[in-house]
Amino acid sequence: MSQSPSEQFIAAIDQGTTSSRCMIFNHAGRVVAADQREHEQIFPKAGWVEHDAVEIWNNIRHVTAGALADADLKPADIAAVGITNQRETAVVWERTTGKPIHNAIVWQDTRTDRICTALGGHEGSSRYTATTGLPLATYFSGPKVKWILDNIDGAREKAEAGELCFGTMDSWVLWNMTGGPDGGLHYTDATNASRTLLMDLDTLTWDSGICADMGIPESMLPEVKSSSEVYGKVRERGSLAGALIAGILGDQQAATFGQACLSPGEAKNTYGTGNFVLLNTGTEKVMSKNGLLTTVCYKIGQQDAVYALEGSIAVTGSLVQWLRDNLGMISTAADIETDARSVDDNGGVYFVPAFSGLFAPHWRADARGAIVGLTRFVNKGHLARAVLEATAYQTREVIDAMNADSGVDLKVLKVDGGMVVNELLMQFQADILDVEVVRPVVAETTALGAAYAAGLAVGFWDSEDDIRNNWAKDKSWTPSMDPAQREKLYAGWKKAVTRTLNWVDDED
After folding, report:
1. At CA 54, angle to CA 62 and CA 320, rounded to 5?
2. How far is CA 412 from CA 119, 268, 397, 420, 437, in A?
3. From residue 387, how far is each of 30, 128, 145, 423 by CA, in Å?
4. pLDDT, tens digit, for every residue of 449-493?
5. Residues in contact with 344: Cβ distance below 8 Å, sequence separation at least 6, in sequence order
6. What's the rounded Cα separation, in Å, for the pair 132 and 119?
7. Beta strands 19-25 and 9-15: pairing type?
């Protein structure tokens, strides 16, 4: 490289569920510039969630230019670019035009429930778990692709003729950044591929049998690469023209990497649209007996893949968003903490946000949201508190399952994401888990993880030790709740969860 690390920077594109942004980092792992744009959430029917992939691509073009302008940088100042993304959201597009044949189907979408049931047959949701580490669930992208091919006129014929590409959002972004119809690269990385229900966890390649079962031609699928290698250059038009694209990680794996959870037994929890707890299990693939997912954590260059156990929770931050946008109970997300602090406890109220069923550790697509324990005593503050506590209780369920699977009790939980600014939630999380909760200086670790993956590939950072050394604690919370009170509250939560089950009937 012609310039020292202090003179160059790493750009990360973070394509999330509600927005896309570009963040630029220095060698110390600190943010020097950022730009962000939200995109529309499309709800065609109850349980259906879609995004306009073209809108998202246009937003990425804007935010990359905006971030460079924010720091007065030019493409030559960028040593490499990393990409991170909402993982299971699926888009199918025409190879020759770059036009999506349908809106992207978002990870939260539940339209594939019947497809998953039919695929499971007499073996049920565990049919492909030994191969993929995943249950058959609406969450994952393979069944979404099957839905598109089954329901969009002419799609299956085009797919079988080799005219269509499928990708999670990383593939869509990479393909467009490297030329689109004019030579765009059709790649994904092992972390994103491990979320499709189509990849063999041992070989890190597409499983032909599962693809055939779902009727997905393998010609549609991107080539699976490592999470940290030089894939290619940004096309010669656009704000990052000529920059090397050298890192791809699904958002939760990126956050794990950015949190420096690089040794077996280290875990993080990201508080975003949903919550995602990942525990690094090293190069050993640990199969869950307690409702967790086995997934690829990251793969650096030619090194062996590192695996993780994951607990995926569908609705946490989006519950606060729902309270703001659908009910109008608060004006800004920050208001939730003010309202929750106006009362001493939840007033006996529990809010189970099973808007799209329950994810880990339950995996119940038939569940729907419920507020239980209502009395005339309950006010706005109690509801606000119940909304925040729902995030902590769902995290406790996942951590309990993780402890059981790994045989080791978690001692410290590293946290990141938008909700970690809520100090009431962080204290309650420590109390209900009975472990220390630690927030890093750079709380938005998803983009940072993608930057690290890209920077390692081009020598901007020498090794994973640089990542460990960059990590710094901002604040921590220690448990202070009486143990009897902790278990009483948690027992109430588990009782509330039972009230959400069996709500959706087969005929619905």
Report:
1. 75
2. 39, 9, 16, 15, 6
3. 32, 34, 33, 14
4. 999 999 999 999 999 999 999 988 999 999 999 999 999 999 999
5. none
6. 14
7. antiparallel
Predicted confidence (pLDDT) at residue 369 exceeds the cutoff of 90:
yes
Q: What pLDDT is recorded for position 266?
A: 87
Query: Side chain identity at 297, as an amino acid letter?
Result: C
Query: 268 pairs with which residues across the strands?
Result: 278, 414
Spatial separation of the C-alpha atoms in residues 430 and 486, rounded to whole Å: 11
Q: How far is CA 75 from CA 64, 81, 239, in A?
A: 10, 10, 7
User: Residue 195 and residue 392: Cα distance in Å, rounded?
Assistant: 25
252 with 270: CB under 8 angstroms?
yes
Amino acid, res. 347: G
For residues 322-350, give the mean pLDDT: 93
Q: How crowded is residue 417: how many other Cβ atoms within 10 Å of its Cβ?
A: 25
Both tokens of residue 107? Answer: 């990870």
Give the model's pLDDT for residue 429.
97
Q: Output b/e per residue, 464-492; b: 16+ Cβ within 10 A.
A: bebbeebbeeeeebebebeeeebeebbeb
Q: Where are the alpha helices (DSSP H) in 349-478?
A: 380-406, 423-433, 445-457, 464-470
Other C-beta atoms within 10 Å of 101: how many? 19
Alpha-carbon distance 358 to 249, whole Å?
Answer: 25
Decide: 364 and 289 in contact? Cβ < 8 Å. no
Is residue 178 within 8 A of residue 232, CB to CB? The reply is yes
Phi–psi pair at 99, nearest 5 degrees: -90, 125
Please list the residues that pair with 92 across neighbouring strands: 166
Distance of CA 315 to the CA centre of its chain: 12
Q: Tokens 């649209």 identify what position?
A: 273
Closest residue by Cα to residue 398 from 279, 225, 273: 279
- CA 282 – CA 266 distance, rounded (Å): 10
C-beta of residue 352 within 8 angstroms of C-beta of residue 497:
yes
